[in-house]
Amino acid sequence: MHTRRAPLLAIGGAEDKFRDRLILRKFVELAGGEQARISILPTASGLRDAGLRYQAIFEEFGAEVAQVLPVRTREDAERDEYARTIGTSTGIFMTGGNQIRISAILGGSLVGQALLRRSQEGAVVAGTSAGASVMTTIMVAGGDGGRSPSADLARMAPGLGLIDDVIIDQHFRERDRVARLMTMVSYNPGLLGLGIDEDTAALINPDGCIEILGAGTVLIVDGRNMVSNVHSRRGGTPLNVANATVHFLTSGSRYDITSRTAYLSTR
Fold first, then answer.
1. The domain 8-253 belongs to what CATH superfamily?
2. If you ran DSSP here, which 8-state letter would residue 240 be given?
3. Which residues are known catalytic residues?
4. In the chain, what are the domain boundaries?
5. Which of 54, 135, 177, 187 is 20 to 30 A from residue 150's alpha carbon, by CA?
6. What SS3 state is found at 68?
7. pLDDT over 90, % of the chain
8. How far apart are CA 67 and CA 47, in angstroms?
C-alpha cells in the first residue's frame, strides 16, 4: 500500500445527492470542513457540466473552496495551473463515467502526479463509480455481470496507483458483478476485492482499516487461500474457484486489510 497521510473514499456510484447526503458530507468533513479546499475532476465524463452538482453540494456544506477543474484531455492534464491547484487542495473528488478516460488522461501527467503526491501528503481523495475503480494500481476496465466466473469475464488495466493490493468494482449489487470480481481476484489472489453497492462507500484509512458507509453493502473477497483453474481456461468456459473468503459488510462495520479481519457493526 502506498504511504498516505489521509484516507481514500471509494463510492459505489449513485450516492445520495438530495437527502441526507451522508457520504458526500463525510468527504467534506475529511477534507477539512469549513477549511476544505476541494478540487473536482470530471475527467471520467464526456459531459461539459460534469462536476457542477458536486461543486454546489460541497459549497452548501460550507467548504471554503470547491471548484471544478475541466481536465478533459491529455493537454489539460499537463497544465501547470491545474497541477498547482491540486497541490494546494485538501480534498480531491473524481466523478463517475469511464475509468479508462481517467487513467489515459491523468496517468503520468502533471495533474496525475500532483494527485498522487497530495494523497501521500494528506489530502483525502474520493471517487464515485469510475472514480472509485481507478484508484487502484490494477483496476477493472470492463466486462459483463451476471455470469459465472470465467477467464473472459473481466478486463483489467493499470489504474492511478493510489492504493496497491486492492481492486474495486462499483454499482456492484445493482449490476450483478459478483462473478466479475471473483474472476479478477482469481487472476491474482493477492488482490483484495472490494465490490461496492450504489449509495455505499468504503473509507480506506491510512492504517489499512476500511470503514463501511451508506445504504448498501461492500462485498470483500479475500483470495489468499483461493484455488482456481483460471490459468488453464479460455473464453467463457466457467471457472472452478474455491477457498475464497467472502464478507458482506454494512454501514458501521470495519475490515482490517493487514490482518484480513472483519469487525461487524452491531447496529
1. Class I glutamine amidotransferase (GATase) domain (3.40.50.880)
2. P
3. 129, 171, 198
4. 8-253
5. 135
6. strand
7. 94
8. 16
Q: What is the pTM of this model?
A: 0.97
CA distance 129 to 258: 25
The string of pLDDT tens digits covering residues 93-152 is: 999 999 999 999 999 999 999 999 999 999 999 999 999 999 999 999 999 998 899 999
Cβ 24 vs Cβ 15: under 8 Å = yes
Contact predicate 12/198, CB 8 Å: yes
pLDDT for 2 equals 55
CA distance 200 to 212: 7
**pLDDT tens figures, 167-210:** 999 999 999 999 999 999 999 999 999 999 999 999 999 999 99
User: Residue 105 corresponds to which amino acid?
Assistant: I
CB atoms within 10 A of CB 48: 10
Instruction: Give phi and psi for 219, each to the nearest 5.
Output: -90, 125
The Cβ of residue 111 has, within 10 Å, a number of other Cβ atoms equal to 28
**DSSP structure class, residue 237:** P
Measured CA angle at 122 (ends 118, 123), to 5 deg: 60
* CA–CA dist 248, 219 (Å, integer): 5
Q: Is 185 helix (H, G, I), strand (E, B) or coil?
A: helix
Distance CA 96, CA 205 (A): 22
